[in-house]
Amino acid sequence: MFKTLVTAALLAATTSLYAQTAPAPDADKKAQRQEMRAKVKAAREQARKACEGKKDGEHRSCMEQQFCAQSPDPAKCQERLKARAEKHKKKTETK
Q1: In this structure, which of 4, 12, 78, 91 has its CB flanked by the most CB atoms within 10 Å?
Q2: Which one has a higher pLDDT value, 49 or 24?
Q3: What whole-number distance in Å separates Cα of residue 58 and Cα of residue 64?
């Protein structure tokens, strides 16, 4: 009788502990993603305002400089943008 009572008490205690878990990590990731998108959008808007009135290649290079100037590692940002431009160029050439 005593063993059954102890077992039931332990079972009840463990299930109540599992009921109080931390929030899902997906919710945290979603909030972080939204925050990052807002930061990127604000940086893009600032770059767009700084490069108003410039045309074609001059506008593109100005946008790259302004956008990467706000990043934590500007050199890495420039490399990423160049790689992305090359990938886009290859993709449009094949079509």
Answers
A1: 78
A2: 49
A3: 10
End-to-end CA distance of the chain: 78
* Type of residue at 72: P
Q: Which residues of 29-50 are buried (b: 16+ CB within 10 A; e: fewer)?
A: eeeeeeeeeeeeeebeeebeee
Positive/negative CA dihedral, 82, 73, 35, 51: negative
pLDDT of residue 30: 87
Domain residue ranges of the chain, discontinuous segments joined by +: 35-95
Location of structure tokens 């077992």 = 7
Give pLDDT, residue 29.
87
Cα angle, residue 92 at apex, residues 77 and 52 outer, rounded to 5°: 50
pLDDT, tens digit, 9 for 90 and up, residues 49-77: 999 988 888 988 898 888 888 888 989 98
